[in-house]
Amino acid sequence: MNISLKNNSAASGILKVEIVKDDYAAPVEKNLRNFRQKANIPGFRRGMVPLGMVKKLYGKQVLAEEVNKLVSENLVKYIRENQLNILGEPLPNETEQKEVNFDTQEDFEFCFDIAFAPEIKIELGKSDTLPFYQVAITDEMLEKQIENYRKNFGSYDNVEEVEDEDLLKGTVTELENGTPKEGGIVVEDAVLMPHYIKNEEEKAKFIGAKLNSTVVFNPQKAYEGEAAEIASFLKVDKETAPDITSDFSFEIKEITRHKEAELTPELFDKVFGEGIVKTEEEFRTKVKEALQEQFLPQSDYKFLTDSRNLLVEKTGDIAFDDAFLKRWLLTANENTTPETVEEDYPKVLEDLKFHLVKEAILKNNNLTVEDADIKAFAIKVAKAQFAQYGMLSVPEEVLANYAKDMLKNKETSRNIVDRAIEEKLASWLKEQVTLDIKELSAEEFAKLFN
Fold first, then answer.
1. Cα dihedral 39/40/46/48 (nearest 10)
2. Helix axes 371-387 and 280-315, enclosed angle (nearest 10)
3. Residue 234's closest CA among 207, 242, 182, 214?
4. pTM of this prediction?
């Protein structure tokens, strides 16, 4: 077997694969003998079919399969061993390819078109300036986050008198002429919060009520005819709720009030871990840092997006084999048409340039993403997800197991690898150029991604 490369230009070439009988004779013979052992042909016992008949019936098929296998395997091997940096996949040549006839030929020749990825070198320096957007953590944002932590890690106390946001538990009974209705609705362990009663007059009946007292109110008025809320409260069908207009009594058996956590070491330990923060001042500083960290991935993403034009501009003119790339796009997706390829090609080319620029930077600067980097980034993603729910002191073992489970999903794993690569690329870029740091409000920052 012989494989040779002919360069048509810096952007494309033709790979010629020449196969002679000695390359495939032995495996074809072996495959035919194996086929003979398994063949089920009328008139012959299994394994006793004459080899000549097997060759006559299936020889061409087996030959074609073996030759195609040789071509495919050795094509990939040649590209890998010769470190050819190609775009897409090799495509059958349409001009130099000779006719192949498995009935008459013993030697075969196959030609494939390939497109080379251009060699890219980028020089950056502090004279190059790129914007870097970050969110200004305001006092209002800080206080709101601290308030969330105080609520999330607060306690529930039993009290004697009802206030607006208390949770009431008790027995609800349907009334008729001021007394329990015979066969009427009764709900044990009913739950109610005055805060969610829409009618102010009905709500006022509960405010100030004492434990073990009974309040008479009208659910239909209280919830202003909201069928879903009435149905949920009275444990009836949503369709039935609009017909229930009776007054009800609510016997208050329990009043629970949420109490926000105090700014004490106990709260600090619950949020950041034991002993990490000792004073209120340190707590506020740590919360602010956590808020800034939550926005950093978006800042880096925006930074990379903004760097795109500069990086592509630095590459200068890049030569591509447009005809090849369009052919490859057409074959790579069965739903693509020549018309859609022509329409989408400018955007595809733009994305391809930036992809190649990123790959070149990673390669030329030895910026590699190892398994340890991927695991570390997965843990960072897991930590960020827990942080969204106010959980900042999740044990390392829990984070590691959560990250491990995420990486078992192929799509999630691929996304994490891509983001880990982009994080490393962003870190490198920030060291090379001058950053024009722009602080924005959270609202202004969010608009950058609309």
1. -70
2. 130
3. 242
4. 0.66
